[in-house]
Amino acid sequence: MHSGPELSRTIDDTLEAEFALRQRHPERGEVYDQHQRRSAELRGRDNCRLDVRYGPGPRCLLDIFPAGDDAPVLFFIHGGYWRALDKSYVSFIAEPFCNAGITVVMPGYDLVPAVRVGGIVDQIRAAFAWVVDHMAPRRIVVAGHSAGGQLAAMLALDQAANGGRGPIAGFIGISGAFDLRPLLQTSINHDLKMSDEEAAEASPLLRLAQLPPAAPLTPLIGMVGGDETEGFKQWTADLVTSWRGRGGVAAYCEVAGRNHFTILDGLADADSEALRAVLAFVA
């Protein structure tokens, strides 16, 4: 059982300001509404395969936005701090990738408190395995935003721990949560109810440090908004530095004028440098 100590922690005001973004961005609801409207338009098209079941959980469904046979796949995981949102909020970013000949797969997952964070990691592993087994793409890039960045990182690290054997050709972490331990002293953990052990086990930065020295790492783009908190910037910078330190190819990309919630708009903007960088990476 995981209960008790994580609920009685004192909130660290500095960490709260860096990572608990709801008060910092009261406009986020308007951003979400805009994203959902744009996503609904794309989801209404005939060629989408929506709510394909990959596992037993109520939200264990995935959406497929196809770009043709033998197309590379972008496996994109939504954020929400493992406690909010769903895949329908981020469908809109699939359009420019499909137009560029890249199939996009977006998995959903159950949220806390119905499951633990570690259980969500396992659900995403199951979703990824479904794609490999049922679609057999020649090339997959795993990506995710915020909590989705953490989940995508765990997939990339799974492959590294397996001696590099697997189909993942690249990993894109967008405003990712790569060390969950600071969240233990924030209001976020009132929902997550993580223990010290759970936070450590689900932290990509710690898992990366524990890999064998020769573990092969897939190339990485660490992307973060220029208007994000220093905490989120540091998470991404630390991941990129550690990735390089272990022999992996990694690039740090700070997107000017974007915050934690608007950075995805850059990925849906055909004229943005961020989109061009990611398209080149995936294709």
Care to describe what's here?
- 39% of the residues lie in helices and 16% in strands.
- The protein has 283 residues and is an alpha/beta fold.
- The chain has one domain: 3-Layer(aba) Sandwich (Rossmann fold), CATH 3.40.50.1820.
- An eight-stranded mixed beta sheet has the order 1-2-4-3-5-6-7-8, with helices on both faces.
- Helix 9 links the parallel strand 7 and strand 8 (250-255).
- The chain is globular and about 50 Å long.
- The protein starts with 12 loop residues before the first helix and ends with a helix.
- Residues 1-7 have low confidence and may be disordered.
For the record, the CATH architecture stands as: 3-Layer(aba) Sandwich
Gyration radius from CA atoms, angstroms: 18 Å
Main sheet: which strands, in order across?
1-2-4-3-5-6-7-8
How many helices?
A: 11
Distance between the termini: 44 Å
Specify the overall morphology. globular
Overall CATH class: Alpha Beta
Kindly state the mean pLDDT as a whole number? 94
CATH superfamily: Alpha/Beta hydrolase fold, catalytic domain
Percentage of β-strand residues = 15-25%
What is the N-to-C succession of helices and strands?
Answer: HHEEEHEHEHEHHHEHEHH
SS-based structural class? alpha/beta
Task: List unreliable stretches of 5+ residues.
Answer: 1-7
| Proportion in helices | 25-40%
Reported for the largest beta sheet, the result is: 8 strands, mixed
Number of domains: 1
CATH fold descriptor:
Rossmann fold
Q: Tell me how many strands there are.
A: 8
